[in-house]
What does this fold into?
Amino acid sequence: MRKVLTMGMLMLWAATAEAQMGTRFPSERKVINDPKTGVELVFLTSKSGTGDSKIYQTHNQWTADGRWVIFRSDRVKGEAMAVNEDTGDIVQVTEGGYTGMLCVARKSMNLYIMRHAAQGSEGAKPRGREDTGGMEVVEINLEKLFADSQAGRLKKKQAYERICGVIPAEMCSEGDMALDGSEEFVYFRLDKEYARKYPIAEQIAPNFGPRNMGAGPGGIGKMDLTTGKAEMVCAVHFKVGHIQGNPWKPGEVIFCWETGGKAPQRTWICNADGTGLRPIYRETEHDWVTHEAVISADELVIAIIGHRPINQGEKKEIAGLESFATSNDWGPSGTKEYATGIAVVNMRTRELTMEGQVPGDNFWHVAGSSDGHWVAGDDFARELWVIDRHTGERTLLTAGHKTTARDHVHPTFKPDGTEIEIQSAMLSDDGRSMNICIVRMPQQLLNRYKR
It folds into this structure.
């Protein structure tokens, strides 16, 4: 009887505006077969109006035990959730808010978040905290949280949180973060004025393109999760966008030049000690590169998109040949006059391999399995495709995944390569609210490369 009452209380707390970390929500799990392809789809959430969305495709989504998927939600405004793949149980995993990326560890059952120091843990005085504020980096012990939540013995959030330290406000005021492969420190974006204090080899870049974004300087910093020490990694001449650590190679950070569209040079790499700063794929003015993701120790997958019409605009002469460039501030990029599709770059040899393009459309957000067998991508129609890297064969996995105009399917492979997580409005009553969905890789495809 006591357990029933405890679970009932937890469900009641779930309806409050400020639910406690560890609060449980009823399962919404639904399993269907894709109407077009027959592939199994497991919707881990299925309600409308809950504000669900997956972590960005550059980051890990699953807990180290492979059982829980971490996601963003407005079930409790501003808090993150976890959903169990097998049972569908949903558990609140933050309390007091967070900002930027959710960083799910692969080697431990920890979640790392960033939040404004003013939102810090009650009664906790993190190392280096100042009255001027800053950004707290917080470690959350998910194993302990899940166990206490299941048992109905929740404690105050201090029992599950450890404040690793505070990044000074002058270094970082916006919450983007990535976990290093060692899981001993995190990377973050430096504020422009802080980056300006350091030597930068190249001339500071102005804004690029019609969205008036991309101007530098920018940079990367890091924080030691044991000592709380925050320090500089590198300063660059452009605005830094998404950052990611290489999970298979500690001490390596990958990031992009963010313009809101085509960048002069999208993909960059640097070592954690500030050495080795360089572009990864040296694109031409015709390449529109986007949505890079580290997929193995040595490989980065990118989308080179060709979504703009050929022969529209101003006539130009290139290398003695007449050609046409699309006429606007993005320049002559993003057309299928040149090679487009999913590409994989070897970060050691710098060799680029084109893996394939979706027929009649464009790959947009891309992913890959770490075993080297598969790459996947969504297209502009919100369909999800997978490509066999050995044969080049394209397979449509699932279609009809409506999303909002501002968000997309965003595929991410599970570390074992058997599943792909996406976000979808396929089951939503309003046709807009996104849910968390797992796409099972067809067994006949997995059987090709069984060990």
Notes: The helical segments are 2-14, 142-151, 192-195, 443-446. The longest strand covers residues 215-224. Residues 1-17, 119-131, 317-327 have pLDDT under 50 and may be disordered. The CA atoms of residues 7 and 295 lie 40 Å apart.
